[in-house]
Design a protein that fits this description.
The chain starts with a strand and ends with a strand. The chain is an all-beta fold and about 120 residues long. The strands form two sheets. Strands 2, 4, 5, 6, 9, 10 and 11 form a seven-stranded mixed sheet that branches. A hairpin with a 2-residue loop joins strand 9 (about 90-100) and strand 10. It is built from no helices and eleven strands. The chain has strands at about 1-5, 10, 15-25, 35-40, 45-50, 55-60, 65-70, 75-80, 90-100, 100-105, 110-115.
Length: about 120
Amino acid sequence: VQLVESGGGLVQPGGSLRLSCAFSGLTFSRYIMRWYRQAPGKERELVAAIGSAGDSTDYADSVKGRFTISRDNAKNTVYLQMNSLKPEDTARYYCNTVWITVNYWGKGTLVTVSS
């Protein structure tokens, strides 16, 4: 399984970014997909998750109403639309899935929210 994140960068507070995660190696449409983030000096935390068909989603309280997770099973890609970004959203964002009992991670994409 290979997960490749993209779309990070430097953005001002209040701005938006859209992260993408390209998935390969398994049948994408069978798997729950998740976005995590890890800020410097902090533990990795779950940001959002989406069911295999895209019909169920869940969010961390800290991002509810600002972030939206979605997926395109035809493109084997999961997205994270991030709006109203805050400095505390600064972190490396990782794509994740679990196959049997194995966690698969991408290398992450860095998001920096700063003026």
